[in-house]
UniProtKB/TrEMBL annotation:
InterPro entries: CobQ/CobB/MinD/ParA_Nub-bd_dom, DNA_Partitioning_ATPase, P-loop_NTPase
Pfam families documented for this protein: CbiA
Top-level taxon: Bacteria
Record-given protein name: ParA family partition ATPase
Species, as recorded: Hymenobacter saemangeumensis
PANTHER family per UniProt: COBYRINIC ACID AC-DIAMIDE SYNTHASE (PTHR13696:SF99), P-LOOP CONTAINING NUCLEOSIDE TRIPHOSPHATE HYDROLASE (PTHR13696)
Residue ranges of every copy of the CobQ/CobB/MinD/ParA nucleotide binding domain listed in the record: 4-175
Length: 242
């Protein structure tokens, strides 16, 4: 089981979007057994499932048209201090776990969750506030990485653009983080309206869903590129991929 934490101490930077895009595709299209743990006190992902997805599931179930399972991956709300107790209980049930955490990174529970992950994905942005918060956070991850290497633990972290706009500031951010030796994924998500209509039920690799949210064919290519790079970088087994 690979544990992937999606975190940044700056709020509103695309954590929930990144998780829903990756979890939906890896579960529905790559055949991984996926669990999403919503440990953020805002409960964004749990709210999306309850508000956006559950009503249609209930209607289909009542009409007898629901194809089980209703959702491609499991989603659980777990307190920060109980995350790894819960994962110990289900370690044989899943191939990939995504953890959504709060924005703050200055408490012991957050450090513990980050340190226990195999991979931390850090959504990055181009504004001054986003840059400062991201750089500070990734420097913290550098220290966790150093300690993990000393203990022989599997730990990696990567910056990833979750709403790229191709502004000059984004190129500057890439060059700056590269100069600091902070790793990042080459694949990214653009700032598109389709990603604002979050669902925990459908994958953006599903043509019918892409049409429903107004996504063009290029969305499939960027989502698949992001999944493929994460699989390679995180060392996920490819034996399960359909």
């Amino acid at each position: 089981m690979k544990i992937i934490c999606v975190a940044n101490q700056k709020g509103g930077i695309g954590k929930s979007t990144l998780i829903t895009v990756l979890a939906g595709a890896l579960a529905a299209d790559y055949s991984y057994r996926v669990l999403v743990v919503d440990a953020d006190s805002q409960q964004t992902l749990a709210g999306v499932r309850l508000t956006n997805d559950q009503p249609s599931v209930d209607l289909e179930r009542e009409a007898g048209t629901l194809a089980e399972p209703a959702f491609p991956y499991a989603l659980e709300s777990v307190g920060m201090g109980q995350v790894y107790d819960r994962l110990d209980e289900v370690s044989d049930d899943y191939d990939v776990v995504f953890i959504d955490v709060p924005g703050r990174s200055d408490d012991t529970a957050m450090i513990d969750v980050l340190s226990g992950a195999n991979v931390v994905l850090v959504p990055v942005g181009a504004s001054d506030a986003e840059r400062l918060a991201t750089i500070s956070f990734m420097q913290l991850l550098q220290e966790i990485s150093r300690l993990s290497r000393e203990q022989g633990l599997d730990f990696q972290f990567f910056g990833v653009h979750s709403h790229r706009t191709n502004l000059k500031e984004e190129k500057d951010m890439d060059e700056f983080t590269d100069a600091l030796g902070l790793p990042r994924l080459q694949a990214s998500l653009r700032q598109l309206g389709c990603y604002k209509r979050l669902s925990t039920r459908y994958s953006y690799l599903n043509p019918a869903y892409r049409r429903a949210v107004g996504a063009d064919a290029s969305v499939e290519a960027e989502v698949r590129a992001l999944c493929d790079e994460l699989i390679a970088r995180a060392g996920l087994t490819t034996e399960l991929v359909s």
